[in-house]
Amino acid sequence: MELTVKLTTQQVIDFIRQMPGEERLAVVLALAKESLPGRTERMKSLESNVQKICAERGLDWNTMTDEERQDFINDVVHEDRECVQ
Questions:
Q1: Could you give the CA distance from residue 17 to residue 23 in angstroms, rounded to a whole number?
Q2: Are 54 and 60 in contact (CB under 8 A)?
Q3: How many other C-beta atoms are found inside a 10 Å radius of the C-beta of residue 54?
Q4: Which sign, positive or negative, has the C-alpha torsion 2, 33, 49, 82?
Q5: What is the pTM of this model?
Q6: Are 62 and 48 in contact (CB under 8 A)?
Q7: CA triplet 85, 71, 38: central angle to 5 degrees?
Q8: What angle do helix axes 21-56 and 66-78 make, rounded to 10 degrees?
């Protein structure tokens, strides 16, 4: 006899939260590992796009500091907004 149980996402989350810490971590790591291949490809593509945008603006992503990179991304994300002072 085969039994199928249908759970909502919230029920699954609640169930996992009841697990001991090490088992919870194992579940999270297993799920994260499954998403890594696609994530890695997306990150490479996004980084390539950012490098291209930098080059178009006369900047070199690879020589920028973390702070410069954060400022650059912030500027790009918010460049369509009017600055109110």
A1: 10
A2: yes
A3: 19
A4: positive
A5: 0.49
A6: no
A7: 130
A8: 80
Question: Does residue 1 sit in helix, strand or coil?
Answer: coil
Collect the ranges in the chain with pLDDT lower than 50.
85
Phi, psi of 13 (to 5 degrees): -60, -45
Pick from 77, 51, 79, 48: nearest CA to 64:
51
Give exposure, 8-40, as e/b (b: 16+ Cβ within 10 Å).
eeeeeeeeeeeeeeeeeeeeeeeeeeeeeeeee
Angle between helices 9-17 and 21-56 (to 10 degrees): 120
Provide the residue ranges of all domains of the chain, joining segments of one domain with +.
9-78
Angstrom distance (rounded) from CA 52 to CA 20: 46
CA distance 27 to 13: 11
Tens digit of each residue's pLDDT (9 = 90 or more) over 23-45: 999 999 888 888 777 777 888 88
